[in-house]
Amino acid sequence: MTTPQKSGFVAVVGRPNAGKSTLINALLGERIAMVSQKANATRKRQLVILMRDEQTQIVLVDTPGLHEKERELNRFMLAEALKAVSDCDLILFLADMSDGVENYEKFLRLAGDRPHILVLSKADHHTHEERLAAVARYQPFQDRFLALLPISATSGDNLKALVDEVANHLPEGPFYYDPADLTTQSMREIYREMIREALFEGLSDEIPYGADVLIEQFQEKRGVDVITATIIVEKTSQKGIVIGKGGSAIKRIGRSAREKMAALSQRKIYLDLQVRVEPGWSKNKQFLKKLGYDYRE
Ligand SMILES: Nc1nc2c(ncn2[C@@H]2O[C@H](COP(=O)(O)OP(=O)(O)OP(=O)(O)O)[C@@H](O)[C@H]2O)c(=O)[nH]1
Ligand SMILES: [Mg+2]
Questions:
Q1: Helix pair 248-265, 187-202: axis angle to 10 deg
Q2: Class of 187-290 in CATH
């Protein structure tokens, strides 16, 4: 008798910077979700398809960090995370191992009795004693979570145990996606996230929050992917910073983005990057929609 197929949606949620996107990349073994040292990197849900074995398909949903800010863009980001929480079979709640339990308590108020696994991230930053203390802090909540796992996405610690635990709680049912696919995102969207990642890496603190990327053109030609993209900023002063002295900053950003793109696609990349000022774009519903940040999606 063959074992039945299992498949389900697993939302990965938590505070900004908890390590959600890094965990998803580590589980997949590909750098497909955007990661940054700076918080609020992920702006939109992203579905990643992880085949644990031939019979088990885990659809991981990366989400923007749970936070409270009033900008229209931030409202969209929060709505994205909440949608993922209500539309999934299982939740992974990620808390940085250094965090106090208040963030988890907030999550419980939000998620009610939705089934979830509590994941304490970045264990590699901590001593054995600190890990035990962190686990102990959450013991009073043990009737709320299905399991509690300290992990490290960078060292790989406990990731297999986490996947096993997720698989235990997945419903039986046919696969949602082709097992050969890595994500539901198009190459165009993945490339855009890579340019955003390069922006987050290459610029000082505030600039990336006021910036985004619009892919104007994407063509898969023979032997080369041709991408024309515009970096959108809110102010003229930001445009100057993104371009840099003699174009040095934008060249660096472009080079870094191209390297990320080529590493994933194994193709040659031709990237043409422009910068445009769009005053107040992050508060403008019409413009947000153009960038794909649309509530009704
Ligand atoms: N040492 C260590 N650093 C980690 C680990 N996981 C993530 N990080 C770092 O934490 C930072 C944030 O990681 P992200 O994966 O972008 O966090 P996120 O939860 O997706 O953040 P948002 O998208 O902003 O909500 C990055 O600098 C990562 O390199 C880990 O297991 N160990
Ligand atoms: Mg993220």
A1: 140
A2: alpha beta
